[in-house]
Protein: Putative amidase domain-containing protein
Amino acid sequence: MTQTPEPRESRKRRVPVLAGIALVVLVAGGATIAWSAAQQGAGDTAANGSADSLAGAPGAPGAGREPSDAVTELADFSAHSDGVAAQLSYAYEHWTDTESDTFGFLPENDCANFTSQTLIARGWVEDDEWWFDESGDAYTHATAWISSTAMRDYLEEHPERATALTDDERSEVKAGDVVQFDWDDSGDRDHTGIVTSVETGLDGSVTILYAGHTDPTWDRSVDWAITELHPGGVAYYWSIPE
Structure:
């Protein structure tokens, strides 16, 4: 169970420098996001196409990538806005992390903490209800930062930040939006992730893939999560304005 942080009388706002964000190289008006200089030096091979093409990698779609899967491709998020590209590149760089000097790590319960980090990478600024403790102790962050249900409650109170969508409205979901799950349809939120891609089939069907911590994965299918991983689960989304 996460601890509820003590209220703060004043708090200096800041936008942290996220050292883990991958190198951005401008190419033909777009940004090609590299994993890291070290991986490039190790002889990684660049992948052609957009981030959506990574869905064809081993293990995806469906269960998506597992931490044991070697991910060495370059990921191109240039089709997205600068903010979403930064958010997705941060998620791509850190989805297998199990520690962070800046944000800390919550074993078995780090999904909302990780999602919040990607929103900071996107350009969100902390406020008095949603913030992280600079000590790096994840248990002392704001409840809305580390709890899926508290994050839902926070976003409901801040429509300027995101708009709630049900799974019936998945055609309105886009990369960079927040996905939340109620695994047992009990009314709370049990898991939170970041939408990595939305694909529309010729028949009009919409496939949504996501990334997240706790059960670390990249490009996991929402449909697989609520039918195979947690049968009967329900997916919800938060649509974030560009």
DSSP finds six helices and nine strands in the chain. The longest strand covers residues 191-200. Residues 82-94 form the longest helix (13 residues).
